[in-house]
Design brief:
Distance between the termini: 51 Å
Oligomer: single chain
Shape: globular
Number of strands: 9
Strand content: 5-15%
Structural class: alpha/beta
Helix content: 40-55%
Strand order of the largest sheet: 1-2-3-5-7-9
Largest sheet: 6 strands, mixed
Length: 327
């Protein structure tokens, strides 16, 4: 019996931006080893104030991540008794509680709950990416199906290689459905009906279709994918990390709530930034510059262009802090 392929992450540290090659073995699959390494990486960069962005790309020459290791899914499914929707709901609810409790996790991993725990942990990792002040960019150097596509959907930006490549959710052709967040994140990217049709058919998007539907942000020649992804990572990663986190949480989490609840999330995140030292100093700079020049800085084209390039509106306080924080 063939064992699941071992996976690893090859990390290139360039200071504020990390470039990570996802190595899923000869077939480029996503298995439990990659899931564990990804969790460790996301936890580390989220805590590190010096890391502003992470670019993921595939070690396989023509694949970002092929899809989940199917034997991993099948064996974890076989280890649990068959259940209906109510039973499945109870299992995943228990798994969520165990994942949060932590102390019970080593014991539960030796029970039929193991598969549900692994899925819960992966969802938690992707959600942490969505809540983090770090920008995550998928540099799709080739094709991505299933969990490979879901990994890309969980990132903040996606650059895809042009050519005979594809990205999508084929799970229904194996008698299952997307389980790594595809039904939720793809829907939020391209809309309910387009997402449903794509998931029901199981047919992937070409790069051009993915771009037209809003599933990826840019399509470039394959040899330029990582370079362009790093450029975007540096550009968006230059924004204040706390504000990036607040904006991401407001959009990703508040954007799927009712309007009233979403506005509550926005207000909460807004006040954390208005009261922050960084926000206060940037706003003081803005007012000082207005007093000195007699014009609002963001209505001065050169100043606005500089702000977009550097990540903050220039000023004596913010410029000094930026130099110190990026050393």
């Amino acid at each position: 019996m063939r064992k699941p392929e071992k996976g690893r992450l090859e990390i290139q540290d360039d200071g504020a931006v990390l470039t990570v090659r996802v190595d899923g073995g000869p077939h480029g699959v996503f298995g439990p080893d990659i899931a564990d390494r990804l969790k460790e990486l996301v936890d580390r960069v989220d805590r590190d104030p010096g890391v502003r962005a992470v670019v993921f790309t595939g070690a396989h020459p023509e694949r970002f991540v092929s899809h989940a290791e199917v034997r991993w899914l099948q064996e974890e499914g076989a280890a649990s008794p068959t259940v209906g929707r109510r039973g499945a709901s109870a299992v995943v609810r228990v798994a969520k509680g165990v994942d949060r409790a932590r102390v019970l996790e080593p014991v539960a991993r030796r029970t039929p709950l193991r598969g549900a725990l692994q899925l819960e942990a992966l969802h938690t990792t992707f959600l942490k990416m969505n809540a983090s002040g770090v920008l995550f960019v998928a540099a799709l150097n080739g094709s991505a199906l299933g969990l490979g596509a879901e990994f890309a959907w969980a990132c903040d930006l996606r650059v895809m290689a042009d050519g005979e490549f594809f990205i999508g959710q084929p799970e229904i052709l194996l008698g299952i459905i997307p389980g790594g967040g595809g039904t939720q994140r793809l829907t939020r990217l391209i809309g309910t009906h387009r997402s449903l049709v794509a998931i029901l058919e199981g047919k992937p998007f070409t790069p051009a279709q993915a771009l037209a539907n809003g599933a990826v942000d840019e399509v470039v020649p394959q040899g330029e994918v990582v370079t362009r992804a790093v450029e975007l990572a540096r550009h968006f990663g230059a924004r204040p990390k706390g504000s990036v986190a607040a904006a991401k949480r407001s959009v990703y989490f508040g954007g799927s709530m009712s309007l009233a609840d979403g506005l509550h999330v926005e207000r909460t995140e807004f006040f954390t930034r208005v009261l922050s030292r960084e926000g206060q100093e940037l706003m003081l700079d803005y007012m000082d510059t207005t007093d000195e020049t007699g014009e609002l800085p963001l209505y001065q084209p050169d100043t606005y262009a500089e702000a977009l390039a550097s990540g903050t509106v220039p000023g004596p306080r913010s410029t000094t802090d930026r130099k110190v924080s990026r050393r």
